[in-house]
Amino acid sequence: MSRRADVAQLIDHTLLKPESTRADVERLVAEAAELGTYSVCVSPNMLPLTDNRGLKVATVCGFPSGAHKAQVKAAEAAQSVRDGADEIDMVIDIAQLKSGDVAGTEAEIRAVREAAPAPTVLKVIIESALLTDDEIVAACRASEAAGADFVKTSTGMNPAGGASVHAVELMAQTVGGRLGVKASGGVRTGEDAEAMIAAGATRLGVSGSRALLEGLK
């Protein structure tokens, strides 16, 4: 396989703008199939997809703030699975983690995990740009203890910023290959993608996938 094809297979081709229509999502799916990405990631209101072209289907939960009750996130995740989602990207309650309630973070992740059991893939968005290094480590450990499959840097919606090489490296070191690491938010160029992969990312959240793949050396 070419490098472009290899990187494409790490991409969740993403469209999460609230104004996106079903026609926009259909174009996203067609583009993802053309580019050979791993999946498409869409808002829960767009599920079920009429034709996923054989791609994995990801959606979000508690998005974008994470400021929802755990039982609400669990219900949202369960509905998305019923609607055909293969993967759930949930946002943690960031205030809860930053207040030092790591046990609460673990409990809410476990609630979503129980609502969306394997083989559904669960990714945990920690909004790393808002966290200290110690908080990033704590969030990753809570995710692993609760049975998540991936830790993910960012929603891409927070003004504090998206993925950074430092955060991805720290997350990858913490989970030690036992969980995947998804870099998302601001991953726009081929150079960005290569830097995140070198730092330990095993999945990429990208909205401008065509430009990124065409920009690979």
From TrEMBL:
Cellular component GO terms held in the UniProt record: cytoplasm
Top-rank lineage group of the source organism: Bacteria
List of catalytic residues: 89 (proton donor/acceptor), 152 (schiff-base intermediate with acetaldehyde), 182 (proton donor/acceptor)
Gene3D superfamilies: Aldolase class I
Reactions catalysed according to its record: 2-deoxy-D-ribose 5-phosphate = D-glyceraldehyde 3-phosphate + acetaldehyde
Pathway terms, separated by semicolons: Carbohydrate degradation; 2-deoxy-D-ribose 1-phosphate degradation; D-glyceraldehyde 3-phosphate and acetaldehyde from 2-deoxy-alpha-D-ribose 1-phosphate: step 2/2
SMART domains, per the entry: DeoC
Pfam families (UniProt xref): DeoC
Subcellular location: Cytoplasm
Enzyme Commission identifier(s): 4.1.2.4
SUPFAM superfamilies tied to this protein: Aldolase
Family statement: Belongs to the DeoC/FbaB aldolase family. DeoC type 1 subfamily.
Entry protein name: Deoxyribose-phosphate aldolase
The organism of origin for this protein: Kineosphaera limosa NBRC 100340
